[in-house]
């Protein structure tokens, strides 16, 4: 019986049981797609990161550090991401969770690293205080006209009064924004309206498929905390995630959107702060920086649980079952 180490790590927070929980499986090289999918379903986090590259950390096959392991190894790292139902190309919070946990465990040092994903190579920086910064693709923003997706249809899908979308829509458009994973970005006038959202998952899924996006990210400048730039909520039923507590990829995309939309008078802020997850009792915060065509999102992470998964032999035919976690 094979045993594999897995972590549940809360990202974009420094408090356990807040932020967005991700599964992290170190030492996943050689795992079949089916095995990774089954482990992700067993762990039950919205996404699980599998560190499948040669440089994920020093130590044994389960990611436990050996006394003689080299914590400064900077080899390219390959990561794959799975929801409980499907593989996704990129996941911000699972990336922050992975590197935050490895740094806290002493497996890697602060500094620059390269992450290889399904959407290409991304630059990772770990600060001495444990903040993990994730580089993202150059932002793209494509405005969606009212004739393609009006406030009435979108309001019905989100379960909000269409007037909450129409009045702010005069200044800020609905748009598909991406820094590697596309999101439909929807501005909402007030936090109360955003908090009242009661999405129709089937309608959100149809919109997601129609516009080829991961989901809908609705946001408002009306925030709970004075230091925050926006408050956001992310709905991605097409990926098996009804509502994501705190979303790194969407935050990066919205940062690019806000710059393209010239949402701020005068100079664009050096750093944006996205608050999210409060309506799910999982509050968290994402930091975002836009410098030219470069977008970085950052945050901290804390390990909430460590488990040993007991696995049968993996014969690659999809017949293995996870016996115990």
- Name the CATH superfamily assignment of the largest domain: Diaminopimelate Epimerase, Chain A, domain 1
The chain-level structural class is: alpha+beta
Give the amount of beta strand, in percent.
Answer: 25-35%
Mean pLDDT: 89
**Tally of alpha and pi helices:** 7
Helix content: 10-25%
Q: Mind telling me the CATH class of the largest domain?
A: Alpha Beta
Radius of gyration: 20 Å
CATH topology of the largest domain: Diaminopimelate Epimerase, Chain A, domain 1
The total strand number stands at: 18
Brief summary of the model shown:
By secondary structure, the chain is an alpha+beta fold. The chain folds into 2 domains: 2-131 and 301-311, Diaminopimelate Epimerase, Chain A, domain 1; 140-297, Diaminopimelate Epimerase, Chain A, domain 1 (Roll), CATH 3.10.310.10.
How would the blueprint of this fold be written?
Elements: E1 2-11, E2 20-25, H1 33-43, E3 48-51, E4 77-82, E5 87-88, H2 92-104, E6 111-117, E7 120-126, E8 132-136, E9 140-143, H3 151-158, H4 163-169, E10 175-178, E11 183-187, H5 191-195, H6 201-211, E12 216-220, E13 230-236, E14 241-244, H7 248-260, E15 272-276, E16 284-291, E17 294-299, E18 301-311
Parallel strand pairs: 2-3, 4-6, 11-12, 13-15
Antiparallel strand pairs: 1-2, 1-18, 3-4, 4-5, 6-7, 7-8, 8-17, 9-10, 10-11, 12-13, 13-14, 15-16, 16-17
Write up this protein.
The protein has an 18-stranded mixed beta sheet that branches. It is an alpha+beta fold. Strand 2, helix 1 (33-43) and strand 3 (48-51) form a beta-alpha-beta unit. The chain folds into 2 domains: 2-131 and 301-311, Diaminopimelate Epimerase, Chain A, domain 1; 140-297, Diaminopimelate Epimerase, Chain A, domain 1, CATH 3.10.310.10. It has helices at 33-43, 92-104, 151-158, 163-169, 191-195, 201-211, 248-260; strands at 2-11, 20-25, 48-51, 77-82, 87-88, 111-117, 120-126, 132-136, 140-143, 175-178, 183-187, 216-220, 230-236, 241-244, 272-276, 284-291, 294-299, 301-311. 21% of the residues lie in helices and 33% in strands.
